[in-house]
């Protein structure tokens, strides 16, 4: 099983007391479905996964899957520090109806390749749901090499790899090294244009919260072989993509939604709202894109 296209990574909104706002989360799901994304991904980086307890994580997965009502596949983030905890979250997401599971190695002690392989293997033997391996050198401090990712792709239900390295050749090299059943996805926003040119199956992005139509138009042009159109749509959003990454996904996405006249709720502490000077800069970017309220 492969996902395709634009995979929208959901913000986890909270109320003024810091509790997850499930009604607002449902509204975000409905809006992204209406805007045309191809899949939904709760509990990614923008979903503030590290700041939620186990019960909150399970409740977020339930809310998103129930709100989606089978209209789109749901890719659930299940990563945790320990293998046992990750297995528990993976099993819960599978029972809840997730179409696929996203799995990131532990981000505390730097793990060896054998430890990472054992981590993925234990999850894969515990569930039958397709697994997306996630290589994110920015949050884990480890940039997993192509040869090792290809080794992970040999695990029975690893069918997808999300690649967030800034190496412009890595997606092409992964596609060449991995089994044919393995699809590769863009995980770093600034690599979207290059990634599609190298044959990526989709783009995993929090930018869809703010500018879904831009991501979708880039994808459509890339799939149609319209290089000029893809270049144009990428160029029209690159300032936003860089801004979102440079200043922290949760706070920038929340600010972007507010500036578009949409309710983004509150962030879970210790995260705080975007600083006023940065919000003014973001407003300038959105005005240039013509997507402010």
TrEMBL record:
Protein name: Dihydrodipicolinate synthase family protein
Family: Belongs to the DapA family.
GO CC term, one of those recorded: cytosol
PANTHER family: N-ACETYLNEURAMINATE LYASE
Any one GO BP annotation for this protein: N-acetylneuraminate catabolic process
Protein source organism: Alcaligenes xylosoxydans xylosoxydans
Residues at the active site: 134 (proton donor/acceptor), 162 (schiff-base intermediate with substrate)
UniProt keyword terms in alphabetical order: Lyase
Sample GO molecular function, one term: N-acetylneuraminate lyase activity
Signal peptide: none
């Amino acid at each position: 099983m492969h996902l395709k296209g634009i995979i929208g990574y959901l913000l986890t909104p909270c109320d003024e007391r810091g509790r997850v706002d499930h009604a607002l989360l449902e509204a975000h799901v409905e809006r992204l479905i209406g805007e045309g994304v191809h899949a939904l991904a709760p509990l990614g980086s923008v979903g503030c996964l590290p700041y939620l307890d186990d019960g909150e994580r399970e409740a977020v997965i339930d809310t998103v899957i129930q709100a989606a009502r089978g209209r789109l596949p749901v890719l659930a983030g299940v990563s945790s520090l320990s293998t046992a905890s990750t297995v528990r979250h993976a099993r819960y997401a599978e029972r809840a109806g997730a179409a696929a599971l996203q799995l990131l190695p532990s981000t505390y002690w730097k793990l060896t390749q054998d430890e990472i392989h054992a981590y993925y293997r234990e999850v894969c033997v515990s569930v039958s749901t397709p697994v997306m391996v996630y290589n994110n050198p920015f949050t884990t401090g480890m940039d997993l090499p192509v040869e090792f990712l290809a080794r992970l792709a040999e695990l029975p239900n690893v069918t997808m790899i999300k690649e967030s390295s800034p190496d412009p050749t890595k997606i092409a090299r992964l596609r060449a090294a991995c089994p044919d059943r393995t699809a590769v996805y863009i995980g770093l926003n600034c690599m979207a244009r290059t990634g599609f040119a190298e044959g990526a199956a989709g783009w995993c992005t929090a930018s869809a919260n703010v500018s879904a139509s831009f991501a979708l138009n880039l994808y459509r042009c890339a799939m149609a072989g319209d290089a000029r159109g893809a270049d144009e749509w990428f160029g029209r959003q690159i300032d936003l993509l860089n801004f979102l990454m440079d200043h922290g996904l949760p706070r920038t996405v929340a600010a972007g939604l507010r500036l578009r006249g949409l309710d983004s709720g509150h962030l879970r502490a210790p995260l705080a709202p975007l600083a006023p000077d940065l919000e003014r800069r973001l407003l300038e970017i959105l005005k240039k894109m013509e997507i402010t309220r």
